[in-house]
Amino acid sequence: MNAHVKESAAFVKFRLGADAKTAVILGSGLGALAKDIAEKKELPYRDIPHFPQETVSGHEGTLIGGFLSGKEVLVMNGRFHYYQGYSMAEVTYPLYVLRESGVENLIVSNAAGGINERFHPGTLMILKDFINFFGTNPLIGPRMDDEGPQFPDMSRPFSRRLTDLARKKAQELGVPYTEGVYLGTTGPSYETAAEIRMMRILGADAVGMSTVPEIIAGNYLKMEILGISCITNMATGLASGPHAHEKVLEEARKAEGDFCRWVKEIIGEI
Ligand code: HPA
């Protein structure tokens, strides 16, 4: 692994005392899970050596160590987005640090727009596959981890074991969920109605501005990944009016209760 990643991971382990096998990346408006963490220790991203430097206000993130359902976890509360001007290497840098810290299981969450007409704001969707619409790939360039394959396979980007566990736990808890294909695009402008029609033809059920780079890097690093989208709005052309970021956050917060219960149960049996 790259020397910078090793230094970042050593710092995270030292400051958070972390020996977590599971990490969670919290999407916009889904931060409530952080409140349930026991024996919580927080590390602002800006304090971690070699982490991308935050430039955009309102997007400050912290890495949290502690326990959920009795299992040790590392939780990324906030992520780096390509639309903020970070490079793909910066967007995915935390994944390498998590891996080097010993993380094997990754739960990635996000807020997304619904393209599938059966969805509605508040729908929770397990990602069964994705479409990379970023027009680039986070693995372009010098390899960060020499052991990773040069051409990673993407036939099964999500872990069957974690996806089955998520299905089982949703049924036990009575949390309604659906499954679908997530299309990741750069943003930050929302899509046009014509783009959404195209994305539906291409096979997308939901669209968002994150997650895909992280899943690609996570696969390269041989992590087991579960993806969950919270549909916060219907996509352009299917929605009744123009989009507003505040509305996205408000809808995510409404679904947060189910999301938190669900993820905690999954972690308990991971
Ligand atoms: N489009 C893209 N990203 C999003 C959306 C959307 O409609 N909603 C939440 N994130």
Describe the structure.
This protein has 270 residues and is an alpha/beta fold. It has a single domain (3-269), classed as 3-Layer(aba) Sandwich (Rossmann fold), CATH 3.40.50.1580. Helices cover 31% and strands 24% of the residues. The chain is built from six helices and nine strands. The chain has helices at 3-16, 88-100, 160-173, 193-202, 212-220, 245-268; strands at residues 22-26, 38-44, 62-68, 71-77, 105-114, 124-132, 178-184, 206-208, 224-234. The chain has a five-stranded mixed β-barrel with strand order 5-8-7-6-9. It is globular and about 50 Å long. The mean pLDDT is 93. Bound molecules: hypoxanthine.
Short description:
The protein is an alpha/beta fold and 270 residues long. The protein contains six helices and nine strands. 31% of the residues lie in helices and 24% in strands.
